[in-house]
Amino acid sequence: MYAWLFRHLPGPLWLRIVTSLVLVAVALVLMVQFLFPWMSEYTQFTDSTIGSVSQP
Amino acid sequence: MVLQEKARPAAAPRAGVVFLRGTIQVLGELLITAGIILLLFVAWQLWWTNVESDAKQSEVIKEFAQDLGTAAPATTDDAPATPAAPEDFGPPVVGAAPGHAGTIGIMYIPRFGENYTRPIVQGTSQDVLDTLGLGHYSNTAMPGAVGNFAVAGHRQTHGAVLDNIHTLVPGDKIYVQTKDGYYVYAFRNNQIVMPSRTDVLEPVPTQPGVTPTESFLTMTSCNPRFGAEERIIAYALLDSWRPASAGPPAEIAAQVAAATGRG
pTM for this one? Predict the structure, then answer.
Protein backbone atom coordinates (compact mmCIF):
# COMPACT_ATOMS: atom_id res chain seq x y z
CA MET A 1 0.00 0.00 0.00
CA TYR A 2 2.66 2.50 1.05
CA ALA A 3 4.99 1.23 -1.67
CA TRP A 4 2.19 1.69 -4.21
CA LEU A 5 1.54 5.23 -2.92
CA PHE A 6 5.23 6.06 -3.10
CA ARG A 7 5.47 4.80 -6.70
CA HIS A 8 2.49 6.91 -7.72
CA LEU A 9 3.74 10.17 -6.24
CA PRO A 10 4.73 12.61 -8.96
CA GLY A 11 8.22 13.96 -9.56
CA PRO A 12 11.76 12.70 -9.11
CA LEU A 13 12.89 10.61 -6.18
CA TRP A 14 13.91 13.52 -3.94
CA LEU A 15 10.55 15.23 -4.46
CA ARG A 16 8.70 12.02 -3.67
CA ILE A 17 10.68 11.66 -0.45
CA VAL A 18 9.87 15.25 0.51
CA THR A 19 6.19 14.78 -0.37
CA SER A 20 5.90 11.63 1.74
CA LEU A 21 7.58 13.35 4.70
CA VAL A 22 5.10 16.22 4.39
CA LEU A 23 2.23 13.74 4.22
CA VAL A 24 3.46 12.01 7.39
CA ALA A 25 3.73 15.40 9.14
CA VAL A 26 0.20 16.35 8.08
CA ALA A 27 -1.09 13.00 9.38
CA LEU A 28 0.66 13.63 12.72
CA VAL A 29 -0.83 17.11 13.09
CA LEU A 30 -4.31 15.83 12.26
CA MET A 31 -3.95 13.06 14.83
CA VAL A 32 -2.76 15.37 17.62
CA GLN A 33 -5.38 18.00 16.84
CA PHE A 34 -8.43 15.84 16.27
CA LEU A 35 -7.98 12.08 16.58
CA PHE A 36 -6.22 11.88 19.96
CA PRO A 37 -8.49 14.33 21.85
CA TRP A 38 -11.46 12.42 20.46
CA MET A 39 -9.94 9.08 21.50
CA SER A 40 -9.19 10.34 25.00
CA GLU A 41 -12.89 11.05 25.57
CA TYR A 42 -13.52 7.33 25.28
CA THR A 43 -10.57 6.18 27.38
CA GLN A 44 -11.15 7.21 30.97
CA PHE A 45 -7.62 6.47 32.18
CA THR A 46 -7.35 9.89 33.74
CA ASP A 47 -10.75 10.81 35.16
CA SER A 48 -10.03 12.57 38.43
CA THR A 49 -13.52 13.71 39.39
CA ILE A 50 -15.95 12.24 41.87
CA GLY A 51 -19.35 10.88 40.94
CA SER A 52 -21.77 12.49 38.53
CA VAL A 53 -21.10 16.07 39.61
CA SER A 54 -18.36 16.13 37.01
CA GLN A 55 -21.02 17.00 34.46
CA PRO A 56 -20.85 20.70 33.59
CA MET B 1 16.74 -26.58 -10.92
CA VAL B 2 14.90 -26.30 -7.66
CA LEU B 3 15.19 -22.53 -7.86
CA GLN B 4 13.90 -22.51 -11.39
CA GLU B 5 10.91 -24.61 -10.47
CA LYS B 6 10.08 -22.28 -7.65
CA ALA B 7 10.57 -19.20 -9.74
CA ARG B 8 8.35 -20.31 -12.57
CA PRO B 9 4.97 -20.14 -10.84
CA ALA B 10 5.98 -16.82 -9.27
CA ALA B 11 6.72 -15.37 -12.67
CA ALA B 12 3.12 -15.85 -13.77
CA PRO B 13 0.96 -16.29 -10.69
CA ARG B 14 -2.75 -16.63 -11.07
CA ALA B 15 -4.93 -13.55 -10.60
CA GLY B 16 -6.43 -14.95 -7.42
CA VAL B 17 -3.01 -15.38 -5.82
CA VAL B 18 -1.99 -11.83 -6.75
CA PHE B 19 -5.19 -10.46 -5.25
CA LEU B 20 -4.77 -12.46 -2.05
CA ARG B 21 -1.16 -11.41 -1.70
CA GLY B 22 -2.05 -7.77 -2.23
CA THR B 23 -4.87 -7.95 0.29
CA ILE B 24 -2.69 -9.54 2.94
CA GLN B 25 0.03 -6.97 2.36
CA VAL B 26 -2.40 -4.03 2.64
CA LEU B 27 -3.99 -5.58 5.73
CA GLY B 28 -0.59 -6.03 7.31
CA GLU B 29 0.41 -2.47 6.59
CA LEU B 30 -2.86 -1.18 8.01
CA LEU B 31 -2.35 -3.21 11.20
CA ILE B 32 1.19 -1.88 11.59
CA THR B 33 -0.18 1.64 11.05
CA ALA B 34 -2.84 1.10 13.71
CA GLY B 35 -0.16 -0.10 16.11
CA ILE B 36 1.98 2.95 15.47
CA ILE B 37 -1.04 5.25 15.94
CA LEU B 38 -1.81 3.62 19.30
CA LEU B 39 1.80 4.07 20.41
CA LEU B 40 1.67 7.70 19.31
CA PHE B 41 -1.58 8.10 21.27
CA VAL B 42 0.13 6.86 24.42
CA ALA B 43 3.03 9.24 23.84
CA TRP B 44 0.58 12.07 23.21
CA GLN B 45 -1.38 11.34 26.36
CA LEU B 46 1.55 10.81 28.70
CA TRP B 47 3.84 13.53 27.39
CA TRP B 48 2.39 15.99 24.91
CA THR B 49 -0.76 16.81 26.95
CA ASN B 50 1.56 17.91 29.79
CA VAL B 51 3.46 20.24 27.47
CA GLU B 52 0.24 21.76 26.15
CA SER B 53 -1.43 22.09 29.55
CA ASP B 54 1.63 23.60 31.24
CA ALA B 55 1.76 26.29 28.57
CA LYS B 56 -1.97 26.96 28.79
CA GLN B 57 -1.93 27.09 32.59
CA SER B 58 0.91 29.60 32.75
CA GLU B 59 -1.13 31.70 30.35
CA VAL B 60 -4.18 31.49 32.64
CA ILE B 61 -2.04 32.54 35.61
CA LYS B 62 -0.63 35.44 33.62
CA GLU B 63 -4.13 36.61 32.68
CA PHE B 64 -5.26 36.28 36.28
CA ALA B 65 -2.26 38.33 37.41
CA GLN B 66 -3.12 41.02 34.89
CA ASP B 67 -6.70 41.15 36.21
CA LEU B 68 -5.31 41.42 39.74
CA GLY B 69 -3.10 44.26 38.66
CA THR B 70 -6.04 46.28 37.36
CA ALA B 71 -8.50 45.31 40.09
CA ALA B 72 -6.27 46.02 43.07
CA PRO B 73 -3.52 48.43 42.09
CA ALA B 74 -2.93 49.44 45.70
CA THR B 75 -1.80 45.97 46.72
CA THR B 76 1.90 46.45 46.08
CA ASP B 77 1.93 49.78 47.88
CA ASP B 78 0.19 48.39 50.93
CA ALA B 79 2.32 45.30 51.28
CA PRO B 80 5.50 46.91 52.62
CA ALA B 81 3.50 49.42 54.66
CA THR B 82 2.06 46.76 56.95
CA PRO B 83 4.88 44.31 57.57
CA ALA B 84 4.18 43.74 61.23
CA ALA B 85 0.41 43.86 61.02
CA PRO B 86 -1.48 41.53 63.32
CA GLU B 87 -2.17 38.20 61.69
CA ASP B 88 -5.89 38.25 62.49
CA PHE B 89 -7.89 39.82 59.72
CA GLY B 90 -11.32 38.72 60.88
CA PRO B 91 -13.57 36.31 59.04
CA PRO B 92 -12.37 35.61 55.50
CA VAL B 93 -13.96 37.40 52.59
CA VAL B 94 -15.71 34.95 50.29
CA GLY B 95 -15.70 35.92 46.64
CA ALA B 96 -18.54 35.35 44.20
CA ALA B 97 -18.25 32.26 42.01
CA PRO B 98 -17.26 33.05 38.42
CA GLY B 99 -18.99 31.52 35.42
CA HIS B 100 -17.95 28.22 33.90
CA ALA B 101 -14.20 28.16 33.08
CA GLY B 102 -13.68 31.46 34.88
CA THR B 103 -10.49 31.72 36.93
CA ILE B 104 -11.00 31.64 40.71
CA GLY B 105 -7.39 31.97 41.71
CA ILE B 106 -4.01 30.33 42.03
CA MET B 107 -3.01 27.44 44.26
CA TYR B 108 0.46 27.26 45.80
CA ILE B 109 1.59 24.01 47.40
CA PRO B 110 5.25 24.23 48.50
CA ARG B 111 5.31 20.47 49.19
CA PHE B 112 4.85 19.85 45.46
CA GLY B 113 7.89 21.94 44.64
CA GLU B 114 9.16 25.44 45.17
CA ASN B 115 7.47 26.78 42.09
CA TYR B 116 4.23 24.84 42.21
CA THR B 117 1.58 27.28 41.00
CA ARG B 118 -1.58 26.09 39.31
CA PRO B 119 -4.72 27.98 38.34
CA ILE B 120 -8.05 27.09 39.94
CA VAL B 121 -10.85 27.32 37.40
CA GLN B 122 -14.61 27.03 37.82
CA GLY B 123 -16.07 23.69 36.70
CA THR B 124 -14.90 20.08 36.54
CA SER B 125 -15.79 19.24 32.95
CA GLN B 126 -13.14 17.81 30.69
CA ASP B 127 -12.43 21.09 28.91
CA VAL B 128 -11.46 22.69 32.24
CA LEU B 129 -9.49 19.81 33.76
CA ASP B 130 -7.67 18.89 30.55
CA THR B 131 -6.23 22.28 29.85
CA LEU B 132 -6.93 24.93 32.48
CA GLY B 133 -5.71 23.30 35.68
CA LEU B 134 -7.52 22.51 38.91
CA GLY B 135 -11.29 22.43 38.48
CA HIS B 136 -13.59 23.70 41.22
CA TYR B 137 -16.69 21.59 41.79
CA SER B 138 -19.16 24.38 41.05
CA ASN B 139 -21.74 23.07 43.54
CA THR B 140 -19.30 23.38 46.45
CA ALA B 141 -18.26 26.40 48.50
CA MET B 142 -15.83 29.10 47.43
CA PRO B 143 -12.43 29.50 49.16
CA GLY B 144 -12.72 30.70 52.74
CA ALA B 145 -16.43 29.99 53.06
CA VAL B 146 -17.67 27.75 55.85
CA GLY B 147 -18.21 24.44 54.12
CA ASN B 148 -16.23 22.55 51.54
CA PHE B 149 -14.14 24.13 48.79
CA ALA B 150 -13.56 21.12 46.51
CA VAL B 151 -11.31 20.92 43.49
CA ALA B 152 -10.32 18.14 41.09
CA GLY B 153 -7.05 17.77 39.22
CA HIS B 154 -5.27 15.27 37.01
CA ARG B 155 -2.78 12.93 38.68
CA GLN B 156 -1.16 12.13 35.35
CA THR B 157 -1.40 13.71 31.88
CA HIS B 158 -2.76 17.15 31.06
CA GLY B 159 -0.29 18.93 33.33
CA ALA B 160 -0.39 16.29 36.10
CA VAL B 161 -1.44 19.03 38.49
CA LEU B 162 -1.91 16.74 41.52
CA ASP B 163 0.75 14.16 40.71
CA ASN B 164 2.32 14.42 44.17
CA ILE B 165 -0.92 14.50 46.16
CA HIS B 166 0.19 11.40 48.10
CA THR B 167 3.32 13.18 49.38
CA LEU B 168 1.42 15.72 51.50
CA VAL B 169 2.22 15.50 55.19
CA PRO B 170 -0.33 16.57 57.84
CA GLY B 171 0.19 20.24 58.58
CA ASP B 172 1.49 21.06 55.10
CA LYS B 173 0.28 24.46 54.01
CA ILE B 174 -1.81 24.86 50.90
CA TYR B 175 -2.22 28.46 49.75
CA VAL B 176 -5.10 29.69 47.64
CA GLN B 177 -4.80 33.17 46.19
CA THR B 178 -7.92 34.86 44.89
CA LYS B 179 -8.52 38.48 44.01
CA ASP B 180 -9.78 38.97 47.58
CA GLY B 181 -6.76 37.59 49.36
CA TYR B 182 -4.83 34.56 50.50
CA TYR B 183 -6.44 31.55 52.13
CA VAL B 184 -4.03 29.29 53.99
CA TYR B 185 -5.16 25.71 54.44
CA ALA B 186 -3.40 23.06 56.48
CA PHE B 187 -3.43 19.54 55.10
CA ARG B 188 -5.13 17.09 57.45
CA ASN B 189 -5.36 13.63 55.85
CA ASN B 190 -6.02 11.78 52.67
CA GLN B 191 -8.33 8.97 51.81
CA ILE B 192 -8.69 6.55 48.92
CA VAL B 193 -12.26 5.97 47.83
CA MET B 194 -14.28 4.61 44.92
CA PRO B 195 -15.19 7.11 42.18
CA SER B 196 -18.86 7.03 43.20
CA ARG B 197 -18.24 8.51 46.68
CA THR B 198 -19.81 11.93 46.14
CA ASP B 199 -20.09 12.38 49.92
CA VAL B 200 -16.47 13.54 50.02
CA LEU B 201 -17.80 16.77 48.51
CA GLU B 202 -20.34 17.37 51.31
CA PRO B 203 -20.00 20.62 53.32
CA VAL B 204 -18.52 18.40 56.02
CA PRO B 205 -16.73 15.76 53.93
CA THR B 206 -18.20 12.23 54.23
CA GLN B 207 -20.83 13.44 56.72
CA PRO B 208 -23.98 14.28 54.75
CA GLY B 209 -26.52 16.46 56.51
CA VAL B 210 -24.10 17.82 59.10
CA THR B 211 -23.96 21.61 59.32
CA PRO B 212 -20.39 22.77 58.77
CA THR B 213 -18.60 25.00 61.24
CA GLU B 214 -15.20 24.94 59.55
CA SER B 215 -13.80 25.66 56.10
CA PHE B 216 -12.55 22.58 54.30
CA LEU B 217 -10.46 22.25 51.19
CA THR B 218 -10.95 18.94 49.41
CA MET B 219 -8.82 17.87 46.46
CA THR B 220 -9.70 14.85 44.35
CA SER B 221 -7.48 13.06 41.88
CA CYS B 222 -6.95 9.70 40.20
CA ASN B 223 -5.67 6.72 42.07
CA PRO B 224 -3.50 4.81 41.42
CA ARG B 225 -1.14 6.91 39.33
CA PHE B 226 -1.69 6.10 35.66
CA GLY B 227 -5.05 4.59 36.58
CA ALA B 228 -8.56 5.67 37.40
CA GLU B 229 -10.06 2.77 39.33
CA GLU B 230 -10.15 4.79 42.55
CA ARG B 231 -9.89 8.37 43.69
CA ILE B 232 -7.42 9.84 46.16
CA ILE B 233 -8.89 12.59 48.29
CA ALA B 234 -6.86 15.12 50.26
CA TYR B 235 -8.56 17.10 53.02
CA ALA B 236 -7.30 20.37 54.45
CA LEU B 237 -8.72 22.86 56.91
CA LEU B 238 -8.60 26.65 56.72
CA ASP B 239 -5.81 27.86 58.96
CA SER B 240 -5.76 31.59 58.36
CA TRP B 241 -6.44 34.18 55.72
CA ARG B 242 -4.99 37.52 54.65
CA PRO B 243 -6.71 40.13 52.57
CA ALA B 244 -5.01 41.03 49.30
CA SER B 245 -4.09 44.44 50.75
CA ALA B 246 -2.01 42.78 53.48
CA GLY B 247 0.21 41.13 50.89
CA PRO B 248 1.05 37.47 50.47
CA PRO B 249 2.09 35.27 53.41
CA ALA B 250 5.85 35.49 53.91
CA GLU B 251 6.33 31.77 53.15
CA ILE B 252 5.12 32.11 49.57
CA ALA B 253 5.95 35.75 48.88
CA ALA B 254 8.65 34.78 46.37
CA GLN B 255 6.37 32.36 44.52
CA VAL B 256 3.55 34.90 44.40
CA ALA B 257 5.91 37.50 43.02
CA ALA B 258 7.17 35.06 40.39
CA ALA B 259 3.70 33.87 39.43
CA THR B 260 2.01 37.23 39.25
CA GLY B 261 5.06 39.08 37.96
CA ARG B 262 5.03 41.69 40.71
CA GLY B 263 7.37 42.42 43.59
Answer: 0.80
